[in-house]
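re: the backbone from monday

yeah here it is again, tokenized this time
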């Protein structure tokens, strides 16, 4: 009888200590990860399409229609300062495409999209004062000649 009682106490004690040990281990394992060790969760945000006029020699040649997306840390949203990076991205993209005289969209060839997106990302982050946008992605890029636009 005493043997059964001691075995029951022993089992209860082992169960209690193993539960405590597991909880202690879980708590300290979660705290042991620093912010560098934790994986960065990113989210992709879609930007409204923009149309940029292409003017050459004082004449309208057509429009470049482009749609971007950008990658930023999840949960950062508008950030603590309440500034939405989408507006800055649209503005920088418009400025870069409008002022780029090296690319003739009427005779469109391969354009260095990678350089364009990296420049947009760098310019937006510089204007925001922090590296909030991790990467800029191009969803679509189209040139519509002036002749193809219905009146």
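seq for it, each position gets an aa:
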């Amino acid at each position: 009888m005493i043997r059964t009682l001691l075995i029951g106490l022993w089992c209860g004690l082992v169960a209690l200590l193993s539960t405590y040990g597991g909880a202690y281990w879980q708590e300290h394992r979660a705290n042991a990860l620093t912010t560098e060790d934790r994986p960065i969760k990113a989210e992709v945000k879609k930007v409204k399409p923009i149309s940029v006029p292409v003017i050459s020699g004082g004449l309208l040649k057509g429009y470049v229609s482009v749609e971007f997306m950008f990658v930023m840390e999840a949960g950062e949203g508008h950030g603590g300062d309440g500034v939405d990076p989408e507006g800055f991205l649209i503005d920088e993209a418009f400025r870069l495409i409008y002022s780029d005289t090296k690319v003739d969209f009427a005779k469109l060839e391969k354009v260095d999209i990678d350089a364009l997106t990296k420049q947009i990302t760098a310019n937006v982050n510089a204007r925001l004062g922090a590296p909030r946008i991790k990467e800029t992605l191009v969803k679509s890029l189209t040139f519509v000649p002036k002749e193809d636009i219905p009146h």
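The mean pLDDT is 83. The beta strands are 42-46, 50-56, 59-73, 133-145.
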